[in-house]
Input
Amino acid sequence: MFFFFFPYSTDSPVYHFPAITIAMIAINVVAFVLSVIYPEAVVVYWLTHGDGLHPVQWLTANFMHAGILHLVFNMISLWVFGLIVEGKIGWWRMLVVYLGIGIVQNALIQMMMLWASEGASLGASSIIYGLMAISLLWAPRNDVNCVFVLIVFVYVRSFCFDVQVMTLASFLIGLDLFGSLATGLAMSTELLHTAGALVGAAVGYWMLKTDRVDCENWDLFSVWAGKHLMTDKERQALAEKDPAYQEEKRQREYELRRGAVNKIRMLVAAGRPQEAYEFYRKKAVVLDNWRLPEADLRNMIAAFHKSGQWAASIPAMVELLRSAPEDSANIRFKLAQILVQKERRPAQAWNVLCKVDPTSLNEKQRQFYAGLKQIIVKAKQENPYDSVDADW
Output
C-alpha cells in the first residue's frame, strides 16, 4: 500500500499575476534537465557541508533537485504557496522574498555545518517551507485544494479535499519540527525544512507588522483578535485603544500643528494675514481641539491692522476674545472702537462694550471706557437703524 497527497490550488485572493512563481518553476525545471544531462558538472552547485563557505552555492543549491519526484512535488507546492504570497505582494517583492529565504537559510546551514565531515543539501524545499510559513501568517483561513492518492497493488483511488492553510501548514511544519527535535537537531531534511520555515516566518511577520503587505484583516493575528468579523467602524475603535496607535496619533497631530503654526507665521511675516487666517480656520476643522497660540493670533491681528484690514480682523479678534478672557476688557475696547469708528456699526459696538464690567477696570481703562461709550452713544443717535448681528 502506498499513499500520498499534494496541494494544487487555493482560494486565496490573487491581486498580482504570479510571474515570479512561474519563472522560478521554469528555472527549477531547466536546472533539473541540465543536471540530468551534465550530472557531474552541477555537483559543484550543491550546498556542501564541511568544505568552507561558498556564497554562490547559497543561491544555486535552491535550484538543484535530487530526482524527478523531488522536483515535481516541490514545484506543485511552490505553485500553491507562491500564488498566495506573490498574489499579495507582487513580482519584485516576491523575487526578494524567494531568493532571500533561500540564500539566508543556506548560509546559516553551511555555517552550522562548517565542522561536518561530508555531505551536501539541495532543493527548493526550504524556500517552499518559508513560503508556507508566510502563508500561515498572511492567509490562515483560506483553503488549499488538495488531491489524496491511495495505491494498493493495482488498485488506485484518488479524491479531492480542501484544507485550511493554517491546518495544512501547521501540520507539515510541526511534523518537521518534531522530526528535527527528535534527532537532536542533527542535519536532516526535517531540519532544512524547519530552518526555511523559521526564516520565512521572520520575513512574513516583519512585512506584516511594518505594513508592507495588506491582508485585509485576515492575517493570523487579526483572526485571533476577531478583527476579520468586525466592521470597519469596530476595527477603527479597537485600533484607537492601542497605546502605540494613540502615541503615533499624538505625534502625527503634533507635527501637523507645528507645521500649521510655522506656515501661519510665515504668511503673517510676509504681510498676508488674510491668507494666514483662512489657512488657520481650515486647519482648525481637521485638527481636533486645536487653537492658534495667543501670541500668534495677536500678531495676526496686528498685521491686519497694520495693513488697514479692519473688517477682516474682526473674526480673529472675536476668537482672541474667547481665547484670552483675562484680557477681555482691552480686547473689547479695541473691537468696539473698530466697529464704531471704522465699520460704522454702533449697535454692534455697544453690544461688545456693554459686556465690560466698569468696576473691574483701573483708572486709565475707566477713562477710555467712558470716552468710547460717549462715541458709541453719539454714533447710535446718528444711526438709530443699526442692528446687532452677533452676540460677542
The radius of gyration is 37 Å.
